[in-house]
Write a structure and sequence with these properties.
Number of helices of chain A: 10
Structural class of chain A: mainly alpha
Number of strands of chain B: 0
Distance between the termini of chain A: 40 Å
Oligomer: heterodimer
Largest interface: A-B, 44 and 47 residues
Radius of gyration of chain B: 25 Å
Strand content of chain B: under 5%
Number of domains of chain A: 1
């Protein structure tokens, strides 16, 4: 995925940081166990968030072990495992497969073809187990291409598609929490799409690629408006999140949703604002 | 109807955390998995369901009348009607547009946002009013970003219009608590960012610029 859904590590307590890492290592091991090394390289923090969220909501039996790994060869790492981590690792592979396939079709990049082909058998094995999620991802890819092709100026067109897909992925099962998770996923997905587009704006403009913000970037209050819109999405997401009866790792989840998720945005903003400060001086 | 707070064994003024804790404790106790060998498993399951419903009721009722996607009811916006006096000579185009705007208002007040949008798209003169109604339509259609974009534009084009500012305020009202909470989790709200600007803008509008 995109790597925006991260913790603000400076603000986590040592204990929380260790727990966060244990989930990260847990997802990595889960990917390895279920999909091999090719699965492991798709590891990302967005998925770690989903795993912590679902673990907090369902409180499944979670085992803890200590392992050495190639990435951290000097000391043993704490590794968590539960059914949510396994679920998220499967979902992650399905997303990676579609992304690579889409990338191959766009760019005809041999490396992407190779990587998506290596994931194909894992993908085919899973799309029967997760037909609802699979359908959501597939529809998303098709619809997203349409929005890009018609150069849609509607800020919500692609974002709503991302939101819907993310909502389906967050729904682990169709139970009493499904409607809450769909909404959390919807606003989170909208945030991620618009944040990613904001991040890529300059690049896309140079390359002449579709970017929904390019239709608005000449406005005097563009930066402020972007932040307002992104904040709106996260506020709606957090509002729904607070309704779930989550007590486990609550502070990590809140750290991510209220603060960490802005890491990238605030970094970009610092660069944008610096020249203005210089002028004032 | 049973009182959901009573089902969870908390008082009506219980904090969010107390409600969540109560729910967790009870749902663990009555969960079918923990009552497999219980001769009263049926009753336990019944109780478990009641707890679920009660929790759901509290959380969903908590919306305070706001619509699912965070916005209130938009059909009441604008105080519609009272148009006319536009049919003078040489004002045919203007007259047509006022008829169109009237149609937009009618559609909006009945909740037909898509139809209202279609009419808006036939209007060539995109003034502050146009952006205002477009924002309402987008909000009704679940296009939050466009709603904010267009309502902001309306306030910029006509800074003295109270109605436009009120819509923008309403659309962005859920954000202050979020940003306050962000500060608790270490996100510094820097000068020039949303919250500050909103306050600055509010000052500007009130005429006491600093």
């Amino acid at each position: 995925m995109f790597g925006y859904v991260v913790a603000n590590s400076d603000e986590l307590k040592v204990k929380e940081w260790k727990e966060y890492q244990a989930f990260y290592c847990g997802l990595c091991q889960s990917l390895r166990k279920r999909h091999g090394i090719k699965g492991q390289i798709t590891l990302n923090y967005d998925c770690v968030f989903i795993a912590i969220l679902l673990t907090g909501l369902y409180e499944p039996k979670t085992s803890e072990s200590k392992k050495f790994c190639a990435l951290h060869p000097t000391s043993k790492r704490t590794v968590l495992n539960n059914e949510m981590l396994d679920y998220v690792s499967d979902i992650d592979i399905m997303l990676a497969y579609h992304n690579l396939k889409d990338g191959w079709q766009d760019e005809k990049n041999v490396l992407k073809w190779l990587s998506y082909k290596t994931l194909e058998s894992d993908y085919k094995r899973m799309n029967q187990t997760y037909s609802r999620q699979e359908k959501a991802i597939e529809t998303y890819m098709i619809e997203l291409n349409k929005v890009q092709d018609r150069e849609d100026e509607n800020l919500d067109a692609a974002a709503n598609l991302t939101g819907k897909m993310m909502g389906e992925l967050l729904v682990y099962k169709e139970d009493e929490w499904a409607s809450y998770l769909r909404k959390i996923g919807f606003y989170l997905g909208k945030f991620i799409y618009l944040m990613d587009a904001y991040d890529d704006l300059e690049d896309d403009c140079k390359k002449g690629q579709y970017n929904v913000w390019k239709f608005y970037k000449e406005q005097v209050d563009f930066e402020e408006k972007c932040e307002q819109i992104l904040t709106h999405m996260m506020a709606a997401c957090a509002k729904e999140f607070e309704k779930l009866p989550i007590l486990l790792d609550l502070e990590i989840l809140r750290n991510i949703l209220y603060s960490g998720i802005w890491n990238k945005f605030d970094n970009i903003k610092k660069h944008v604002e610096k020249p203005q400060v210089m002028e004032k001086l | 109807m049973t009182n959901p707070y009573a089902v969870l064994g908390v008082t009506r003024d219980a904090s969010e955390e107390e409600i969540k804790k109560a729910y967790r404790a009870l749902s663990r106790k009555y969960h079918p998995d923990s009552n497999i060998n219980n001769p009263n498993a049926k009753e336990a399951e019944q109780k478990f369901k009641e707890i679920q419903v009660a929790y759901d009721q509290i959380q969903k009722g908590d919306d305070g009348g706001q619509a699912a996607n965070g916005y209130g009811d938009f059909s009441g916006f604008g105080g519609f009607g009272g148009f006319g006096g536009f049919t003078g000579y040489g004002q045919q185009r203007q007259a047509q547009e006022s008829i169109n705007i009237q149609a937009v208002k009618n559609y909006i007040s009945n909740g037909y946002f898509k139809e209202a949008m279609n009419v808006l798209n036939t209007i060539s003169n995109q003034d502050a009013q146009w952006y205002y109604y477009s924002a309402i339509c987008h909000a009704g259609l679940g296009n939050e970003a466009m709603a904010i974009e267009h309502s902001k534009r309306a306030t910029m084009m006509d800074q003295n219009n109270f109605q436009y500012r009120e819509l923008y305020r309403k659309l962005t009202t859920g954000e202050t608590w979020y940003q306050t909470r962000g500060a608790n989790y270490g996100r510094a709200v820097m000068p020039g960012s949303g919250l500050c600007c909103t306050i600055m803008a509010a000052n500007l509008f009130c005429g006491n610029c600093c």
